[in-house]
Structure formats: structure tokens, C-alpha cells
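Weekly structure sync - notes
Attendees: PM, LS, DV (DV joined late)
Agenda: review two folding runs queued last week.

Item 1: First target. Sequence and C-alpha cells pasted below for the record.
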Amino acid sequence: MGPLDILNHLLNFMAPAAFVALALVLCGRLFGAKGGVVAGWRQFAVIFAVGLVVLAGGLALGARDGKMLTYSALVVAAATCQWLLVRGWKG
């Protein structure tokens, strides 16, 4: 496998985490979340990092990428992280 193939696989591995993080930040702004204690780009970075950790854990535990359980865990972990970042428990 060449370097461009490796880069392609890496970007495709990271794409779900990036999409979910971007969607959560944009929808949070759209539906009235004030942003909590961090700016939007920082929210994206934190949620994206959490998503990558979840995807890597799913790859390590499931022995292959793309399992639905991993994607479900990605959504739950990213949504929980967003809720914590915007201080959702304060109403």
C-alpha cells in the first residue's frame, strides 16, 4: 500500500468523527445552545478527539472498522461530550 492509499484510509477512518462533531456544533448553535464555556472551534476539536478515541477503541476491540456498534458508541460519546461542553444540566 502506497502513501496516498494510507492517507486515503486514514481520512476515511476520521471522517465519521469529523462529521458528527461538526453536526453537533452547528446544530447546537442552530437550536439555541449558548456554547457553554468553550468556543465553537474548541467544541469541534474536543468532540472530534473524543470521536477518534471511540473509533480507535472500536477498531481495537472489533478487529475491523465500520461496525455499527462503534458508530453507535461514537454518537453517544459525542453527544455526551457536547452536553457537558454546553453545560446541558443547567437547563
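Item 2: Second target, run right after the first with the same settings.
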Amino acid sequence: MFFILSKILNFFLSPFNWLLILALLAFFTKNAVRKKRLLIMCVCSFLFFSNHYIIHRLMLNWQAPQKTFAVNEQYETGILLAGFVGFEYNKKQGYYGAASDRFIQAIRLYKLGRIKKILITGGSGSIWKQQYKEADFVKEQLHEMGVAPADILSENQSRNTYENAINSKQLLDSLQLKAPYLLITSAIHMKRSQQVFTKAGLQTVAYPCNFNAINNPQLFWNSITPTHKAFESWDIYLKEVVGLLMYKLTGKA
């Protein structure tokens, strides 16, 4: 039930959908005063949520900082969170998505000797298409990239971050692999992930990747020009902020 409710909540967390609702209300209302107020709210909301500078600063403050390793720093297991593969159902083919830097960094860390094993955790994030398991696809890809089969661990039942943590703990405990574990996920997702994993009883060290915002100087014109990409960033940011809040309220973080 929590999984389904979180999917529904995602729709109402999108500022673009808020704008759409305001525009529809303004279009259908017959009251002239109310119509004018709704249109003003719609324009003001558009100018705020389409501003790249505002959401860029918020994301920079939320993201986890880049990890710097000590000379001989090494971990028994790196936990790779899924969420970077999409599936074409007709061909049963997986495709890497925007967050696939997680996959790249996991292999890089393995090749550099920073982690000895890779645990890929994640099943299907779809409500209906549960037969396509991301961990199964990634496991095959890791093997093709030269990771030894004995060094690949996987669990394919998780549907969200909370289940990632619970199922990973069960697997790691059963294999008696020592902590701390290197947690590999997107920088914007790290704060929520690490708190959930800690609550589940796993000691982790953050290795953020797939940085959505980079701290470069912002040109004045780019900072004031509306852009559709700002809406996409708001969706990502609000999902993390509200997601962490909901996990805290339900005792999962």
C-alpha cells in the first residue's frame, strides 16, 4: 500500500501539474475576479518554478558532497541502488537511463579495488510490470563488464528505498559480510537513502554520484530565463525532500 501511495503522491508533487490544475481552474471558472486571481497565481508560479537559479541552489544544498578516499581505503561491499534502467516490454530489453552513472561508478570502484563485491538492489518500480527486475538485468551487465560472478550479489524484490535497505540487510547478514558498506547512489538521493539504511541497521559510507547540480558560476541571463529543465529538477528535488519527510513520519528513516 505504501508503494502505491508513493506513486500517487509523485503526481501531486510536480509543480508542472500544479500549473496545469491552476490553468484548468482559470479556464473553466465563470467568476471574473476568481479567474483573474487564478491567472495571476498561474503566471507567478510559472516564473518561480521555471527559474533555474532557485532550484539549482536548492539542489546544491541538498546533494551529498563528493567522496574523497584515503590512500588505502577499501570496503568489503559496495551497495548499488537500482533506479537507472528502463525496460521496453515488447522486446524485454533494458536501457540505461539518466542515473546510470551509479552503474559506471560501481564498476570503476570495483576495478580500482575500493570495493571487493557489488550488491545490486532493486526490482521493479512499476505498479503493473513487476516481471521485469532491474537487479537481474544489471547483474548480467556487471558480469559482461568483467566483474567476477562470485563478487556480484543481488536482490530483485525491492520496489523503493526502504525495501532496498531491508532486503540488503537480510542478504548481507546472511552472508556475514562486514560493515561499513559503501552506499552508491545519486547525490540528490543520498540523504534519504543513507538515513533509511541507517534506520534499517546498516552502517554505510556515502559515495554519491550522478550529480544533478554542479557548483559552477551562473550567468545572469541563464539565471532569469525560464526553462523547462527547472520543472524536471523540481520534480526530483521535491520527491527527495517529501520522500524523506514521509519516511521519518512512518518511522522508516
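Discussion on item 2: The CA atoms of residues 94 and 137 lie 7 Å apart.
Action: LS to circulate a short write-up before next sync.
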